[in-house]
Amino acid sequence: MLLKPWTEIVRKALRRPGPDRSTEPSPPRGRPLWLASNALRALHSWVPPEAELRLYDEMRRSFPILDVAITTLVRLCGRIRVEGPAELREELEAFLQGVQVNQLQRGFHGWLEAHLDQMILYGKGIGEIVLNRSRTDVYALMNLDARTIRFRAGRDPLSLEVIQQAAGQWEPVVLDSARVLLSLHNPQGDNPHGTSLLRSLPFVAEACSIIENATAQVWQRMGAPSFHVNWVPDEGFTDPQGTLTEAVVNNLQQQFTEVMASRRVGEVRDLFTSGQVRIGIIGSEGQILAVQEPLRAFLEQMVAVTGLPPWLLGLHWSSTERLSAQQADLLISNIEALRRAVQPQIDYLIDLRQRLRGRAGRIRVAWTPVNLQDMTEQARADAWREQARQRRIENARRMWELGFWSQQRAARDADEGISEVDRVYPVPPGEPIRGPLQLAPAANGRREP
Q1: Is residue 384 located within the same domain as residue 421?
Q2: What does the pLDDT look like over 3-23, one tens digit per residue?
Q3: Given CA atoms 366, 372, 376, 381 in this order, what sign does their dihedral have?
Q4: Of 75, 151, 186, 239, which is most buried with the most CB atoms under 10 A?
Q5: pTM for the complete prediction?
Q6: Residues in Cβ contact with 158 at an 8 Å cutoff, skipping those fewer than 6 apart
Q7: Which domain range does residue 342 map to?
Q8: CB-based contacts of 118: which residues, under 8 Å, 6+ apart?
C-alpha cells in the first residue's frame, strides 16, 4: 500500500509537461455582429467588406478637391525621426532611408505616404514586411491594395485571418499576421475594416456631379451650338409635290455644311440663298441657371469632411481668409489622430528589425512637429511676448533696487524657472523702503513724497 503514492509521484515526474496555458486569454462571451454561430461558421466565416471602396476611388478621380484634400493630409503628417543612442540611431536612419519599397522605390517614407493614402481613402492601409532569406533583417516593405483584403474569423472572436483575394486568382492567399502592418482609420464598433474619410459623401458627390454635368451641357450647347436653318418661300410659291422645296432645302444644307467646315480650317465662305432664310441657334432662348450658390453648399460639406480650411484646397470664398489659431489647433488634432493610427505599426516594424539584428537598446519613434500658424502673426506674437518679458525683468530689477524685494524674489519674478541665483550682488545703497509711502502736502495742495 505504500508503493501507490510513490508510483503516482514517479508517473507525474516522467509525464511530459504540457503547454503553458496560463498566458492564453480566456474566450470572450460577447460576439461581434459579423461572427456567425458555430453551426454556420463554415459558410459565414468571412467578415463582409465595405462595398463602396471602388466608389470612393471614382469619387476621388471625379472631384479634384477630394484628391487634393487626401494628398494634403498625407503630407501634413510629416516624417518620423528616431530617438535613442547615437549608434543605433544612425543605423536605423540608414535603414529607413535605404529599405526597398515595393518594386522600384526606396525609403520608408515612400511606403508610409502610400500607407496613409490608402488608410484615409479606403478606411484601412495594409502592408507586408519582407524578410531576407536568412531571416536576419528586413529586406523590403510592400503596400498591398486594400480593395483586395478580406478578413476571416478565427477560433474565437479575438482572432482574424488576413486574406488577400487578388484578381485572377481562385484561391485566396492567407497572409502571415506576424508580418502584416494594418492601420485602420476611424474604426466603428466591431467592424475591422475601418471607415473611409469619404464615407458620408456619396450623395453630396452625386449632387455635385449633376450640377457640373448640367453646367457643362449648357456651355457645350452655347459654345458649340446647333443651328436651325429655316427657309420661308415667297407668297406666290406653289409646290404641290414638294420636290422644289426638297431641292431648295438640300441645297441650303449642303452650302451651310460647307461653310461651317471651311471655318474649322480657317477659311471664310459665303452662303447664297433665294427667298427668306432664317438661321437660329437651338436652345438659345434657354436661361442659364446660377450654379455658384447650390454648388458651394455641397462643396462646403466636402470641405467640412476633410477638416481643412477652404483656401488650402484652392477655394477662396473670402478675400481676407486666413488660418486662425483655433483652426490650426483643430487641424493639428486631426493630423495627430492620423499619426496615432499608424504609430503602433511603425513601432512594431522598428522593434522587429532590432530583434532580427540582435540589437539592444530602447528606440523611440517621434514625428516632426506640425506648424501651421501664420508666420507674420507668430513673429508679432513672439515680439510682444519678449517685450512683456523685458518689462517684467525691468520691474523686478526696480523693485529690488527700491528694497521691496530681495534679489532671490526678483529673480523668480523675472523668470519662474530660476530656483536660485548663482551670483549675489550687494544691496543698493540707501535705506530700504518698507511699508506704504508717506506723502507730505505740497505748496500747490498736492501731496508729494
Answers
A1: yes
A2: 556 566 545 555 555 555 555
A3: negative
A4: 151
A5: 0.68
A6: 25, 27, 28
A7: 30-199+336-367
A8: 124, 125, 126, 143, 145, 146
